[in-house]
Amino acid sequence: MRQLDRVAIVGGAGKVGRLLLPHLLERGRTVVPLVRRADQAEELEGAGATPRLLDIERAGVTDYLDVLDGVDAVVFSAGGGPDGNVERKRVVDLGGALATIAACEELGIRRYVQVSAIGVDEPPEPGAPEAWRAYVSAKRVSDRAVRDSDLDWTILRPARLLDDPAVGLVQLGVDLPPTPVTRGDVAAVIAAVLDQPAAVYRQWDLVGGVLPIPEALARAAS
Questions:
Q1: Residue 66 lies in a domain
Q2: Is residue 145 one of the residues assigned to a domain?
Q3: CB 156 within 8 A of CB 200
């Protein structure tokens, strides 16, 4: 695996993206969060990042080519948010992921980590809100696009996300019980899998557990 000196975060101003930033900086990486607004860029620059501006809701592949130029790996952690807006799920969670994948392939960026959600291959419950159906569909289709790409990909599918402090204990695997997991622990797992060859071409559920992250990753990889 090539040296991953410069890592871009699509959704860099989001909760997981912000928590991921210090993990990557501690590893000596240049972090390129993609953010929509200048004030977000200024804030993250003050935290040690090298942000670039991108409005996912209006960007096309050409825009991604510009902001991803020169990076070695990409983390896609963007999301349309819990606002009930169906179109944002399609534009951000699906359209943003597809544009990112296409740009990575064109630029020759191999390493790609996508944050999805647990259980999206299952149909939503009857009567589920339309926005939830759109979200599940967007994640399912974008995950498939990642698997069909020629990138060195990892897909992480967290259970319900908590804002509690990270505990450093998780479980990674397939068809796991959907035990909630902290956003901080998700960020730590992303940082851990980025340069792990054993994590390439793997799709894992990510839930709260009892194993330290290095041990959980080693078990899942084996």
A1: yes
A2: yes
A3: no
pLDDT-above-70 percentage for the chain: 98
The number of residues making up the chain comes to: 222
Q: What is the CATH number of the domain that holds 172?
A: 3.40.50.720
Q: Which helix (H) or strand (E) holds 183?
A: helix 183-194
pTM of the shown model: 0.96
97-107 vs 130-148: helix crossing angle, rounded to 10: 20
State how far the Cα of 23 lies from the Cα of 113, in Å rounded to an integer: 15
Residues β-bridged to residue 152: 111
Mean predicted confidence (pLDDT) in 12-36: 97
pLDDT score, position 127: 87
What is the domain range of residue 18?
A: 6-221
Contact (Cβ atoms closer than 8 angstroms) between residue 13 and residue 44: yes
CA 206 to chain centroid = 12
Structural domains of the chain, count: 1
Instruction: Report CA dihedral (44, 13, 149, 25) to the nearest 10 degrees.
Output: 30
Q: Classify residue 138: in a domain, yes or no.
A: yes
| pLDDT score, position 83 | 67
Is 1 part of a structural domain of the chain?
no
